[in-house]
Design goal:
Length: 126
């Protein structure tokens, strides 16, 4: 059974930083792409960042809204993916979810992801 467990969310002031972690179990972590999505209250879940599997090149992709502020990375030895979030803005407030895909390619579309974590709340105060 695949399980994804996010941690690291919390309350931070605008301009601050947070680091989210997502620990995966139940499948060969290194073979699959990983991503972070977020969902603000009353809005649809949206793509934040993704990272391909090592075998697919390990490329990273970002939504325009977070490019230059957020960094996604993975530690295959620890079966963990991270999201370093800097220069946070109030509009970054959302529940952040990690997900794992079907083929390692790390796409932007949520329907391409097979398993999801339970989410972690990030709140940025102004």
């Amino acid at each position: 059974q695949v399980e994804l467990v996010e941690s690291g969310g919390g309350l931070v002031q605008a301009g601050g930083s947070l680091r989210l972690s997502c620990a995966a179990s139940g499948r060969s972590f290194s073979l699959y792409g990983m991503a972070w999505f977020r969902q603000a209250a009353g809005k649809e879940r949206e793509f934040v960042a993704s990272i391909r599997s090592r075998w697919s090149g390990g490329n990273t992709y970002y939504a325009d809204a977070v490019k230059g502020r957020f960094t996604i990375s993975r530690d295959n030895a620890k079966n963990t993916v991270y999201l370093q979030m800097n220069s946070l803005k109030p509009e970054d407030t959302a529940v952040y979810y990690c997900a794992t895909d079907r083929d390692g390619s790390g796409p932007r579309f949520k329907d391409e992801y097979e398993y999801w974590g339970q989410g972690t709340q990030v709140t940025v105060s102004s």
